[in-house]
Amino acid sequence: MLTKPIAMITVALAALILFSPAIRAQMLPMPGNTSPEFRAVAQAQLETIHYQAHVFLEQRGRYPESLQELRDSGYWVVEVYNIFTALPIQQVRFFVHDEDYAVNDALPQVGLFVPLPDEEGAEFQDAQGQAQAQMGRKGGKPGHRVDPARVEFPPPGDLFYNIDADSLQLVIFDDTGAWEELWVELPFNYRASSLKLTEAVRPRTDLMAAEVAMHLENILPGQYNRMLFLTDRQTFAPTELAKLLPVSFEKMAAELSLGYINGAKQRAFMRTDYYSPGDLAIAPWLGGEESLIYFLEGKRARTLLELTDADVFRENAALIKRRDKLVVKHADDPPPAPGN
Q: Which of 83, 273, 300, 324 has its CA at a distance of 20 to 30 angstroms from the CA of residue 97?
């Protein structure tokens, strides 16, 4: 566990990295006060929706026109549930008029950019620069931001979704009329941009598996720790969270009203000790590898880095070959009987 002062520094740095003006994405202040629980869950949900919308953009060259288009696209691999009803989140119906735009529709230039340490920080900043340069070459144009106070009678826990030019605005309201908002002036999401698959010949569901793995391993832990911090609960060190993930990711996600989806089978993502494409592999016959392993279509199994990092894929070539032979050998094994 982390002490409170260290936890405050950890969470503050994570927030600055995630929502710095340098990456053109930020949580904006809202009038009134929301509960710590609502704030923590809503922020995690906004980040998760933004992540999936950006995966869509990476694949199709634009943001989805609506939440429903994103949900139907195949890139919706983390279900988001309304905090108040526990039903899948829905888009708030609101037709935007000119008078609904904020008077000052520019992104507030507040906060500081805190780089990540060492090589990861260099990689992050390089990816950030490339993304911004790419948007400049494409003529990226910031759009207008709607004043959330103009949205009439928003259902609590549902999502106001708005794209304007190359900007994305996401807002979730509580039951008092206050809100949490994520405003992205120009497209950038480091995690979504990192989903460059290493294998040239692969099923389409490899991207879905990598998208789940990226969120589960690199986004969920920070969201969960922030929730613990905001609700005045004891936080975890990153190494502790990494150890907890294989057995506790469902609980962590559920506390944030999130749920992972198996893109290959279109059902809940789960841990399986038998070959099941799209799921987290915990089969004992795979051996005791430290990294999380994901079953893929085509009788394969990969880690997140093997899926997305060409250097790791090459370095682990022999290990991957041995592992895939085990998957082929056991692919037709029946699932264990319930209770075993």
A: 83
